[in-house]
Fold:
Amino acid sequence: MILFILLGLFVLAFFAFCIWMQNTETPVEGATVAKWLMSGVVLALFVMACAVVKGPIRLILTGVHAPAVVVGMAKSAGAADQDSLLSPVFEFITATGDRVKGQSRTFAPTPSAQVGDSVAIVYDAAAPADTQLLAWGELRFFVFMLAFIAFVLTTWMAAMLVSGDHSLDDPLGILPRVGRRLRLDPFRFPVLFILSLVIPACGVGTYVLVNRAIELRADGLGALGRVVTLEQRGSRSGNGSISPGTFAFVTYQDRSGAAHTIRRSAAWPLSRLGVGDAVRVLYPPRHPALGVVDSWDELYLVPSFFGLMALAFCILLAGVLRGAIRLSPGPRAA
Structure:
């Protein structure tokens, strides 16, 4: 709901600016109004983003951490029951021994935790019902607003650099100072922009995948699996995608006796498994169908790749910022 209100205000502000421009005879005056209007929108979004995370940050810094278990889902008011957004409801025990229920601060079609999941939370010791679920999914709206602010500022900076028109500078002169500090030009700016996206993406991917592998090693349950079939190059996997190479499909049983089939990630010749071969499978206790073959490449190959890419991009970024890697147009041929 807040998102639609923000977008509505932005649209109204845009139309108000268009009407003003029609009644403005001096182009410079219209450009000044446009710059102040855009600066006001960015500032308002930033203040709202800070207001959204004020409570969670206060709890994380001053609250009491505790484990909790998700016991249910709260539904938002929707047009129909299937259209309702969900928010995890969890139960935990305070330091004084009281059993308290809390709820996530966000509603989403796919909540950050499912019923039965063990989660980490933080609560206010003076008011235990004031809680915060410690999960990345809880910051979706905050991340969206920061991404929108970054998009506006990036577009603004790109327009300034490409056009070279100082009339596009922001009213406070912040963007020009940043550009001079980073020695930005139409060639350095795209490189720095791309690196600012791929480095956090690779870092987050590395963290999530490594953490998942460590948890699976520490808390996962083991089972004996057997290769039941080999799918040839161009075969269709369970999710509908076309899988190149020859993959081994492994069947195993969890502790309840239910059978599950998973696909070995590595294809031949990286994997030399044949039909009937036995392998060890690790699976999460609460999600037994999400098992993986207990091998280094299944658990750590992809996060290692993301980690190396993040390191390489960081070295490239340092070289660009220090001037060791120069980005400029080459000399034109005579």
Summary: The mean pLDDT is 78.
